[in-house]
Batch of 2 targets.
Target 1
Amino acid sequence: MEALGTPPNPLHVAVVGSGPSGFYAAEALLKSGLAVRVDMIERLPAPYGLVRYGVAPDHPKLKEPILLYSAIARLPHFSLLGNVAVGRDVSVEELRAHYHAVVFTCGAQTDRQLGIPGENLSGSHTATEFVAWYNGHPDYRDHSFDLSQEVVVIVGQGNVAADLCRILAKSVDELTTTDIARHALDALAGSKVREIHVIGRRGPAQAKFTNKELKELGELANCDAIVDPRDLELDAASRAEIEAKANFVAAKNVEILRQFAAQAASGKPRRLFFHFLKSPTALAGTDRVEHVVLARNRLDGEPFKQVARETAETEMLRCGLVFRSIGYSGVPIPGVPFDPRRGVFPTQDGRIVDGAGAVMPGLYAAGWIKRGPTGIIGTNRADSVSTVKTLLADVVQLPPIKEPGPDGLRRLLSARGVRTVSVEDWMKIDALEVARGQPAGKPREKFTRVAEMLQCLNVG
Ligand SMILES: Cc1cc2nc3c(=O)[nH]c(=O)nc-3n(C[C@H](O)[C@H](O)[C@H](O)COP(=O)(O)OP(=O)(O)OC[C@H]3O[C@@H](n4cnc5c(N)ncnc54)[C@H](O)[C@@H]3O)c2cc1C
Ligand SMILES: NC(=O)c1ccc[n+]([C@@H]2O[C@H](COP(=O)([O-])OP(=O)(O)OC[C@H]3O[C@@H](n4cnc5c(N)ncnc54)[C@H](OP(=O)(O)O)[C@@H]3O)[C@@H](O)[C@H]2O)c1
């Protein structure tokens, strides 16, 4: 038999997940110089992961990586098997029988928990749910949020929290020509939200916003950003942090927050309040959330290692809607080791390892399921390239397969009645979404149900 990775004996790789890390891994494999066949397996009929279902609709420029991903999808020897969930429609063992290697790029599909009383009261939601709902993710199509409430609390001060603040603070006119899902636009049209409170457990120097996203919150047409100047008095360790050259983002954030604090509220219909050094300790209410109990914190520790410690001082903040935006978490797939504490598949140099640290031959990971839920779209490129480098270094020792990838897997899926979505199928759905958006001046009107997307494939 010819060497693996040569045209008579190509390397068959399954990439699980079609977000940024999946496409960057596929690109690195297909441009490696070896003979490689990539099958990308995606549980939804629509590809692109969080670029489609996470990136905020009012930030269309940040969705432009999709242009690159659609070009990768058209490379020779790339196939998409959309509408196929690993762990539901096909097992990891079955994939291992058909592919020399499996690269998991399945992201972080759920949210972290605060672990406080009342967390699951009606009116308390995760950012994951709200983001996926306004972006038209089919799993969240039928969720509802009580936007008749005037006061909203958002826990967490990262860029996802910033996205939520904008979507809640903007007028419908500002969102109407974006790709926001129609059901969300209709619900937001009736929004009574007047006050948004965004809560950080640490201080202004530790907020995780990037500068551009924070600055934008002070430039909203419909909403005043409000910061209490007393909250910007930094402790010595925080001063040391923002004086460190490499920490320029935090220094700039503090400067932006000082500008917000110096600005007088101009009477816009909505107000966004920044709170620092406060942790929710309980959500309370009779049938639904009516207020959040906040403990005042102090910072403890050396610069860059400061943690929030609760003091005995507490306050009650009345509110009718709470969003917990404290980070995402991966979910396990049977047959793959999982680290529940970090919410990731444990790896060494991109190779998946079991609890004892032993390598699982042929299994790799990249992106959020490998690193955890941090980093912007571009961060995933270097990560996927490094995992693929490891995989290619392993080629000579990869386990043999029973039958080459696509044929065996397609037969198995078809026997199970799974309607797979190919690149050509997706292009058809994509074109219909774009056409549906045109009358309203939207870049697209997404289909928000799996059945609707599959129905498109039976038309014409
Ligand atoms: C709300 C939000 C907004 C963001 N906005 C920006 C932004 O504006 N700019 C920016 O640079 N970064 C942004 N990011 C970060 C960026 O989206 C991530 O860095 C990136 O998407 C992570 O890529 P990934 O491929 O690891 O995961 P994902 O993008 O989550 O892709 C994972 C894919 O795997 C699929 N999948 C999961 N399980 C299975 C399974 N069992 N079988 C088959 N398929 C499966 C999922 O359906 C999904 O398509 C944002 C993140 C969030 C959460
Ligand atoms: N426009 C963009 O570029 C964009 C948009 C959205 C997302 N993203 C990226 O996507 C990634 C994920 O964003 P994210 O906002 O989900 O995560 P994040 O940046 O990690 O922010 C999470 C926030 O939650 C807080 N938090 C965590 N656990 C908490 C707890 N138990 N109690 C109270 N607060 C808690 C964190 O505070 P501590 O610091 O104290 O832990 C932090 O303020 C980031 O890398 C982000 O930059 C980028």
Target 2
Amino acid sequence: MTAAPTNGSPATPPELLVLADTVLTMEPGSTPLANAAIAVADGRITVIGPASELQAAHPDAPTIGGPGHLAIPGLINAHQHLTGDRLIRSMIPDDLEPGRSIFEWAVPAHAAHTGDDDELSATLSLIEAACNGVTFTVEAGTVAHPDRVLAGFDAVGVGGTLGSWGWDVSGEPWAGDTVDEVLDRQRVVQELTAGHVRVDGWVTLVGHDLMSDELVVAASDMARRNDTGITFHLSPSDSDTASYLERTGKRPAVHLDDLGALGSHVLLGHGVHLGDDELDRLLSTDTAIAYCPWAYLRLGQGVTRAGRHVEFIQRGGRVAIGCDAENAGDAIDVLGATALAAGLAKDMAMDPTAFGAHAALHHATLGAADALGMADEIGSIAVGKRADIALVDTTRPEWVPLSPDPVLQLVWASDGRSVRHVVSSGQVVVRDGEPTLVDRAALAIDARARHHRLVEAAGLG
Ligand SMILES: [Zn+2]
């Protein structure tokens, strides 16, 4: 561990000093900083330096953290459904045949969702995420009322990306009858989020085989033209491979590349079942993948046999870790998913030298930001970046005694429950484990009532 050198100069007096015994900046080649302070102004990190020095220079600045805290960058959740599953969380049975969980449960729940349900779902999901240290969430592409989900982001005070339901299949909820109708919905979200400090409008499609070639090409072009990202689901199980082979004669990623729909602006959800030719196409187009290991285990999708995410990373592929849905992995705990990613990598390779905690944590922080095309903005503790910081309580039982390697202890011994305070864009959004901007008890009462209404309206249970 090294003492913090002073880095940056305080152009504006800090609005907040974040203090920690140890700071993991996650910057390339960095070592943990001891007894450091992170100064914040206008939502951004202005200085990183010795705590004693910065506190002496700014005796009146409010502080958070201090002794008994480890500071890490706010975590990134690269694939999360913020509506639909939340109000029926952990309710869909875990012994259903493939597809039934989606089409007999999740889709009817989405179809019965009101705007109020969307806002409450997103708020509850983002509270759980924030309490587990997540400050940036990529919505996975199934939002009916984006204005209400944006209100959820604002209520909790965290950042993310947001689009709207994007599929052109007939007879399904929130589907567009034409490609233009689907794209118009995305355009509305781009306008809604224009100039937003923490939430970016992305283009989101459901993906799988639930999009026409015309739609995916036009949607990808739209994201490219607007200099934003696009995300959609592909090949969590082997059913997309079968349907693309039947329809096009090619495997999914090969077909999408032949259409010109892949590229560095694309974040594929999952990419578990990929052939050699598909891996080559994703690498040559610099297409990124959101990897959600708990979802594949909950749904029995075969990641332990087929997953090639580590090989993809080792060949230069961009990967971010995600959590998926509250009935697919359930917990919105990126640290838990990070530990699983490391464990699966070692076990699948039967090689303990493969992909350890340090590598895995990179793909929940700076590596994740890179996969989202946002490495200049989030993912590490660095001067000029958004002040997104999670403070871990190292007085908790799992942190006693402290390991000389905080990354090993964070990933293998701990999880989101160790997170005590969270700063998002310079604002304290979680203090002492509780969200600061919303009334969690009142939301819980609302959630119980809305759960019952939704179960009835959707004909579930
Ligand atoms: Zn998903």
